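so my prof wants the structure for this chain in the tokens format not the other one, which i didnt know existed until like an hour ago. anyway here's the sequence
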Amino acid sequence: MLTPMLRCVAIAQFAFVLLLPPPSVAQAPGYVRVNFVKAGLVAGVGGGRGVLSYRGRNYHFTATGQSLGITVGATASRLEGWASGIRDVRDFAGTYSAVGAGGALVGGAGGVSLRNEKGIVLDLKGPKAGLEFAANLSRITISLR
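here's what i got, hopefully its the right format
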């Protein structure tokens, strides 16, 4: 038999557990690899394919992009990094935007941080080959295949 004090403690603990919010779907980062080719003079266009590895599965996607500003040249990039803020893998698809500047001469490194309308953030880095100077506003659309 419980004493009145222990009974109050047990009831308080039980009530505390009942009042806790239900567990939400935890966000997990996804690993992203993408090959992207870009060319332009003033305005640039590009496209590529990639893979999102998320919760033990691979999701293939296509990426198309355009940039407006100062863009001169052509490059090929092999980028990889992390996608954060994913609640549902379908949220990965969408239009991402970034403002940035960069360059490459024959070879170099590139990096970009992008965000879509659903709050997914891509932080990607990797080698870049070609010749390009860019200072522009970029927009990339990702579609799951």
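also thought this was worth mentioning. The chain has a mean pLDDT of 77.
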